[in-house]
Amino acid sequence: MNQIIPPTIPPALFAERADAIAQAAAELAASGWTPATSSNFSMRLDAEHAAITISGRDKGHLGRDDIMLVDMQGHAVGTSARPSAETELHTQIYRRWPAMNVVLHTHSRTQSVASRLFAKEGAVRLQGWELQKAIAGQTTHDSELLIPVFPNTQHMPELVAQVDAWLDAGKPLHAYLIDGHGIYTWGRDMAETRRHLEALEFLLGCELDLRRLSA
Ligand SMILES: CSC[C@@H](O)[C@@H](O)C(=O)COP(=O)(O)O
Ligand SMILES: [Zn+2]
């Protein structure tokens, strides 16, 4: 893949972010959270650009050549490669929150099953779990942490509009599920975003267990 890097972006920065994405993706894939080329990952490079996975690549075996540049409207920059089909969901996060620098999207079995089970209720309501405090800004297990479940669609502007509507209603958002699809979460850096993803995977698994055991 021939990636031309704009002069305002240090090539070493792109390489560092691409390596960080590839490493995180390999670890998440090893956990079985990225089956069959699913999932996508990105990191902000500056106010105008993000590095993101090229569409359709095996997320367990990414190299620098599998990561490309996009602008904050989700358009490819300096390459004819095709960015993730879900790029607009990443750039929406970067546009809305200048402090957010990483977006991770995975398709684990737990995330997928939870998204279907809780779709009718429109959200997973997390309360009483100590691990809620792994989410930035959450200080107690007593708070209610809502993870919305948005209907799936192949038309990204519809998904973007659903997320915008949630945020424009003033509701807090740290992550969302897409029905029958997977989870999106984000953070200020890779470590924080991985922590969010791991905590949510654990919490969704606990909620599924509770439903199963109380059935
Ligand atoms: C392989 S099915 C999953 C895809 O449709 C999509 O949801 C996904 O997560 C990966 O798409 P991609 O375009 O590779 O970023
Ligand atoms: Zn997906």
TrEMBL record:
Origin: domain of life: Bacteria
Catalytic activity field: 5-(methylsulfanyl)-D-ribulose 1-phosphate = 5-methylsulfanyl-2,3-dioxopentyl phosphate + H2O
Protein's name in the database: Methylthioribulose-1-phosphate dehydratase
GO molecular function terms noted in the UniProt entry: methylthioribulose 1-phosphate dehydratase activity; zinc ion binding
Cofactor(s) named in the record: Zn(2+)
Originating species: Dyella tabacisoli
Gene3D superfamilies: Class II aldolase/adducin N-terminal domain
Enzyme class, broadest EC rank: lyase
Entry EC no(s): 4.2.1.109
Keyword Amino-acid biosynthesis on entry: yes
Keywords: Amino-acid biosynthesis, Lyase, Metal-binding, Methionine biosynthesis, Zinc
Cofactor: record remark: Binds 1 zinc ion per subunit.
Gene expressing this chain: mtnB
Alphabetical GO biological process terms: L-methionine salvage from methylthioadenosine; monosaccharide metabolic process
Binding site for Zn(2+): H105, H107
Pathway(s) per entry: Amino-acid biosynthesis; L-methionine biosynthesis via salvage pathway; L-methionine from S-methyl-5-thio-alpha-D-ribose 1-phosphate: step 2/6
UniProt function note: Catalyzes the dehydration of methylthioribulose-1-phosphate (MTRu-1-P) into 2,3-diketo-5-methylthiopentyl-1-phosphate (DK-MTP-1-P).
Annotated ranges, domain Class II aldolase/adducin N-terminal: 19-208
Lineage, top ranks: Bacteria, Pseudomonadati, Pseudomonadota, Gammaproteobacteria, Lysobacterales
Protein family: Belongs to the aldolase class II family. MtnB subfamily.
A family per Pfam: Aldolase_II
SMART domains: Aldolase_II
